[in-house]
Amino acid sequence: MEELKAKWERVVAVATERFSPGDPMDVDSLVFIVGLQEVNQPHRKWNKEEKLDLMHVGICCLLEPLGYYRFDGRDADGWPHYTLLENLPHLKAGQQSLLMKEALVGYFEENGWIE
């Protein structure tokens, strides 16, 4: 648990420095960043519905390695699409947050943003 905490703090520090200097990022912000990275269109304006879609992409991407989603490919606009393979178990807020933090740490490690 201490190792996860240290890695999580590193993820927050790296992401905050890169995307939001001076304003520490939270889980939701980082899920949004993952969605942006996966859609690969970071420098455009997004409407409210598109921002929700980016969050969905981020969640799917993060939970894919855990077996909850399968990546199916990209559409003509470059958006990734996923299929739900297994419903998430009912989790308390703290458990849900822990799951997402673990998934975010894994994503940041896999993509070489942290060691």
Task: Please tag this protein with its features.
115 residues; two-stranded antiparallel ribbon; mainly alpha; 57% helix
> What order do the strands of the largest sheet run in, or round the barrel if closed?
1-2
Tell me the distance between the termini. 17 Å
> Please, what is the oligomeric state?
single chain
Which range does the strand content fall in? 5-15%
Please report the number of helical segments. Answer: 4
The H-and-E topology, N to C, reads as HHHEEH
Uncertain regions spanning at least 5 consecutive residues: none
User: Which bin fits the share of residues in helices?
Assistant: 55-70%
Mean pLDDT value: 93
Description:
With 115 residues, the protein is mainly alpha-helical. It has one domain (2-110). It contains four helices and two strands, in the order αααββα. Strands 1-2 form a two-stranded antiparallel sheet. The longest helix has 18 residues, at 2-19. The protein is globular, with a radius of gyration of 14 Å.
